[in-house]
Write a structure and sequence with these properties.
By secondary structure, this protein is α/β, with parallel strands linked by helices. Helix content is 17%, strand content 24%. Strands 4-1-19 form a three-stranded mixed beta sheet, covered by helices on one side. Strands 7-8-9 form a three-stranded mixed beta sheet, with no helix packed on it. It has a three-stranded mixed beta sheet with strand order 10-11-12, covered by helices on one side.
């Protein structure tokens, strides 16, 4: 059981965390919602060939890397929780559609921690409709303000692939993933993209009137944590393929900025959904220590210049399963800053 929730940014000293699982990970059957998030640039005929359980080797190695991460975190004095094991190949049925689950690999996507609040976000994919259930056994007695967004219908009209230069997620209903948001104390930077729309931003601002939910534009892909990573107050890491010295969110004008794109290949890509930029997807233990994918030696050296030490660890299937160290964790308690 998690005693209480408190996490307002991504760099205060980490005390308690949820780490995902890869058990029974499954590529869901084709529908417009999974194309939007996983394979927006591919033809539906090609996507349909991917459906079904991931290879046993992928699942086993991913679980080994996740367990290794847990061991390292516990050695750092961090309390670690894991979700229930669920068979994601089983069908999910609604009056309007039928699909399967995906995985419990990325708790970052479906829960948003804001101070002492835990928000279940309305995922952009139908296959994640019940994914939060896997976490209720560790969250059910937690002391926090826990609420969820309206349950979406995930109609096909919410997705439009006619112009891939723009987000393929439309503004028909409230849809967004938590990993679409950067938390900086009382500021929440909300990326308008394939994983979050303006209705989602407006709903979040309405629910959090004492916070500033600020729109971010420029990258129409998916989650923001391989594009913008605040490392501590006043220092931010940018993906230089998406942000440049003359084109970055105005919010960071007075911050020190690292523009970086020397990403090294990180893991096998087997019908995967992430680019090598997933190597930027790091987990901060505190303002001077992060966990980084072990092949990102250039990034480790760059962080060292800013007095940030790195713990390099393997994450062999980050690209395939769609998550690096930030994605596969949910920091539910950080030290009060």
């Amino acid at each position: 059981m998690i005693s209480h929730i408190y996490s307002k940014n991504g760099w205060d000293p980490l005390k308690e965390v949820i780490v995902g699982r890869a058990d029974f990970a499954t590529v869901p059957p084709y529908d417009a919602s999974m194309q939007n998030f996983m394979y927006a640039n591919l033809d539906p005929v090609a996507i349909k060939e991917f459906s079904g359980p991931y290879k046993t080797k992928i699942i086993d190695e991913a679980n080994q890397d996740l367990q290794n991460l847990c061991t390292v975190l516990e050695g750092l004095g961090v309390m670690v929780h894991r979700p229930d094991v669920v068979d994601h190949s089983r069908p999910i049925q609604s009056p309007r559609w039928r699909t399967t689950g995906w995985h419990n690999y990325c708790p970052r996507d479906i829960f948003l921690c804001v101070d002492n609040m835990l928000i279940e976000t309305p995922s952009v994919m139908r296959c994640r409709a019940f994914e939060t259930w896997s976490y209720h056994s560790i969250l059910k007695d937690t002391l926090c303000r826990w609420f969820s967004a309206p349950t979406p219908r995930w109609d096909d009209s919410s997705f439009d692939f006619s112009d891939l230069s723009k987000p393929t997620l439309m503004n028909e209903e409230i849809l967004f993933d938590a990993a679409n948001i950067v938390r900086i104390n009382h500021d929440l930077l909300f990326q308008i993209s394939n994983s979050g729309n303006k209705r989602g931003l407006n709903w979040l601002q309405t629910m959090l009137p004492h916070y500033y939910v600020r729109p971010i534009y420029g990258y129409s892909g998916a989650h923001i944590d391989s594009t913008i990573v605040p490392l501590r107050e006043g220092l931010v890491l940018f993906n230089a393929d998406r942000c440049q010295p003359d084109n970055y969110p105005e919010y960071f004008e007075n911050w020190d900025k690292i523009f970086f794109n020397d990403f090294k290949p990180c893991g096998i890509l087997d019908n995967g959904i992430a680019s090598n930029a997933i190597g930027m997807n790091l987990l901060s233990i505190n303002p001077n220590l992060v966990i980084v994918e072990e092949n990102q030696k250039s990034l480790i050296a760059e962080l060292k210049k800013h007095d940030i030490e790195s713990i390099p660890l393997p994450m062999r299937h980050a690209r395939t399963l769609g998550g690096g160290f930030h994605c596969v964790t949910l920091d539910v308690r950080r030290q009060h800053g």
